[in-house]
Design a protein that fits this description.
By secondary structure, the protein is mainly alpha-helical. The chain has 2 domains: about 200 residues, Up-down Bundle (Alpha-lytic protease prodomain-like), CATH 1.20.1510; about 80 residues, 2-Layer Sandwich (Alpha-Beta Plaits), CATH 3.30.70. It has 8 helices and 3 strands; from the N terminus they run αααααααββαβ. It has a 3-stranded mixed sheet, covered by helices on one side. The longest helix is centred in the N-terminal third of the chain and has 31 residues. It is elongated and about 90 Å long.
Length: about 290
């Protein structure tokens, strides 16, 4: 197992342990206080535990090497499991919004407790530390599962800060903010769920390399004067990377070895310059060239 999957495994285990701890203490305090914002945050932590576990499983599957049944590896497992995470997040968001809306309409009040403040502060510290770690891993390996976890950790810092504000306002008799923040938290979770779902869907539906990156690759190809024409440029996502293929036309008077050597050198150059490209496949066609007198 290479460093990438070891680091992702470690970050997912830390996420499971951290979120499980927060789930327990938030659940206890939300039950005692009756705070809907804290209850919403508890549901959020529950989804985070599930998400971290799914990240662990998804990473384990995607780390498997290519085989006879999966010639290009198991990289897309990351996106299948990230899509599952987004669905779970969305269901949690719906439950949170429904409960908070009922609380806002009925005007139920929660009991202030210093433990609400303590739990909020502990949550912000733990989540911010998890964000720093997972964000570093996400940028290093461009992994959508860890990227989703990293965003979720950062969002939780903001959400729990809002909870802290709601808790402090209750001391002045302002209770409606609690239900309102519960709804906002639910919408925030739903929005992030939709973003993760769309990103995963695009990869699973073989969305092409973005136009800017495609133009950068074509620019590299066109720098070679021996390439007379480029045709049939295609790209397919494989995990967080892409496989690209295209046809180049070269002087038909060149030997088979010389023409394929051009393609081999071009493949090496593209794979070196573009880390997001997993594999480059180049077809070589001869082209009749008029001799210049």
């Amino acid at each position: 197992m290479n460093n990438k999957y070891k680091d992702i495994k470690k970050s997912s285990i830390l996420g499971i342990l951290g979120n499980l701890f927060l789930l327990i203490i938030k659940g206890i305090i939300s039950f005692i206080s009756g705070s809907m914002a804290m209850l919403a945050d508890t549901f959020n932590s529950a989804s985070d535990v599930i998400s971290s576990y799914i990240t662990f499983i998804g990473n384990k599957i995607s780390s498997q090497k290519a085989d006879d049944d999966h010639n290009l590896g198991h990289g897309k497992a990351e996106y299948i499991y990230s899509m599952l995470i987004s669905i779970i997040m969305f269901l949690m968001a719906f439950s949170v919004i429904k409960s908070s809306f009922i609380n806002l309409i009925t005007g139920e009040k929660f009991k202030f407790s210093i433990w609400l403040v303590i739990v909020c502060i502990v949550t912000i510290i733990i989540k911010f530390l998890l964000f720093l770690y997972t964000n570093k891993i996400s940028k290093k390996y461009h992994n959508i599962l860890i990227k989703a976890n990293s965003k979720d950790h950062f969002n939780d810092c903001i959400i729990t800060t809002s909870n802290l504000v709601s808790c402090l306002l209750s001391l002045g008799g302002i209770y409606f903010i609690d239900g309102l923040l519960g709804i906002i938290i639910g919408l925030w979770i739903a929005l992030n769920a939709i973003k993760i779902y769309i990103e995963s869907y695009n990869v699973l539906m073989d969305k092409s390399l973005d136009e800017n990156k495609k133009n950068e690759v074509l620019k590299v190809i066109k720098k070679h004067p021996e390439v007379l024409k480029i045709n049939h440029f295609n790209s397919t996502p494989i995990g967080y990377q892409y496989q690209i293929s295209f046809t180049i036309f070269v002087d038909g008077n060149l030997s088979t070895f010389a023409s394929h050597e051009i393609a081999n050198n071009l493949e090496k150059e593209i794979n070196k310059k573009f880390p997001e490209i997993y594999l480059t496949v180049i077809h070589v066609n001869p082209m009749q060239v008029k001799n210049k007198k």
